[in-house]
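Question: Hello, beginner here. Any chance you could explain the protein record under this note? Any guidance would be welcome.
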Amino acid sequence: MKTAREMGLIGCKRCTRVSAEGTRNCQRCGGKINSRDPKSLQKVIAWWLLGVACYIPGNLYPMLETKTLVGSDSSTIIGGAVELAHHGAWGVAIIILIASAVIPMAKFIIILGLVIGVRRGSQISDGLRQKLYEVVEYIGRWSMIDVFVVAVLSSLVQLQTLVNISPGTASIFFALSVIFTMLSAQNFDSRMIWDNGHMPKPMAPDENDPGPMLAGAEKERSA
């Protein structure tokens, strides 16, 4: 099966209209058309590094700061989830852990794996890598759930001198990490996934496997 590039066609990334190769501007939306973005991987890695750099302090610094008449308290994302679990709110704790730890780490790993697959080849089929890229783009927006919770609490719980909840330093870093990761995924040219072949690389034959020898013997007998 041939790709659109092999057939002399090129697609617009803005409106997905297909045009003949060599077309500079899309006839539908007027956007610039490129067969491949030559700087796509450099942009992806740059945004990816910024996302990782912001994700680390986003989990180390306090996400929420609570001030009362008795004193003040602050908790990180993981610490807040553990505290919620201790109070019996297991559902909320699991949602926060998934949104703040599992999803961001999965995005970092998948984006890096896609870049390595384009540069060095991959044992995973092109179709599966395309699905992984679409999953990363879809779930990226849900990583902001922690920031939304902090924003809602900060706006609702303002009882003057009794209780005062304000966002911590980690909220800024975590929000930046989510934004940089989304930009990293958006700058990845998914068309490059299909440039290195369409099937996973074949595994090296096992010297101890008698299968090929038996198949050759059967062919000689039938001849």
